[in-house]
Design a protein that fits this description.
Blueprint (H helix, E strand, L loop, with lengths): L7 H8 L2 H22 L4 H27 L5 H19 L7 H29 L3 H29 L3 H26 L13 H9 L2 H32 L5 H26 L1 H19 L7 H31 L5 H29 L9 H28 L9
Amino acid sequence: MTTAVLPRREVLAYGVLGLPLAFAALPIYVHVPKLYADSLGMPLALVGGVLLGARILDAVADPLIGQFSDRARGRRALIAWGLIPLGLGVLALLRPPDSAGALWLIMALTVAYAGYSVANINYQAWGARLAPTSLDRTRVVASREGFGLLGVVLAATLPGLLATDSAEGLAALALVFVPVLMLAAWLTLGRVGRDSAHGASHAPAFAMLAAVFGRPAFRRLLVVFAVGGIAAAVPATTVLFFVDDVIGQGDRAGLFLAAYFVAGAASLPLWVAVARRVGKVRAWLLGMLVSIAAFAWAAGLSAGDGTTFLVICLASGLALGADLTLPPAILADQLAESTSGDGACFGWWNFVTKANLALAAGLALPLLALLGYVPGGQDEAALRALAVVYAGVPVVLKLIAALLLWRWRNHMGELR
């Protein structure tokens, strides 16, 4: 394994912008379904359908945004422009008027998603070229994801500290988000010394998108990432319902989420060290096995098992660190061997990430409604269905991802 050469201060400065990007993502993907279903009274199936449609459109646009970004001279300006609609969209989503319905939700999601996509795709592509060695690429991704997890912890805990009512807490959170976004943008865009124009392409959009998708190592990595990502997206969409109605401790939801993400952040140096010793692919496989064990345990929980669920949150958070750090670092290794298509690759990468979340919300929530689950209900069969969807489905999908990763372990393009 090569030694690190990128200065630590530059690694940290780059990672700071990951905080507000993840800060925005948690309420959008976790709290918005419950906010619009509970506080605004929208039917659960309608919320799931709106989220599915908006996220599919957003996901489809990502590869095109990535290819468009490859035509730019640098990434910095595109990141800055993307942050503007992101801030406006988060304000609209978390501070809706009392009369807000499906149309408001669709429009707010579209604005937030568009800004997030432009900023995040270029941020990731910038980081991939910023790191000159394989170890540095792992450090850069770990920095970005570490700050991202800090942002998630803040987004998970602040609503309960800012107000006792969850809707009021999210409204206050939106007002905190805007200055945090501005400060982080100034630190990252102003303190990281070089831009990334390397890999610029003027090839026709669909030709480049097809070309990068046709790379065997990238395609295999993307498939494993997709299957594992769906496994993570299902519990992310249903966790608040699980904590409320199966565990029966909705007042501790912030604690559970914080434990999960703090454990993920604390594990990042561990996964960097494990990857350096055994390789990124094998380290990622180890993380999958930890996740499988944690969710298999969660499937058997019932009312009052809050302490056990807290331990499970810590274990699954440990696995989260591997999922966040190692797949993008493997992708960065692949890009080090190429001369173009960075944005197109991360466009596909974000497409898969968002498609996973769309499928989780658009399929899991209507499935729960079909099985008779109603938020706040106490029907035993419906609660068991919720537990199976929350924990059982991720176990099956993670097993599939682990088997695929093991089968393709020598064909991922990992650099040592």
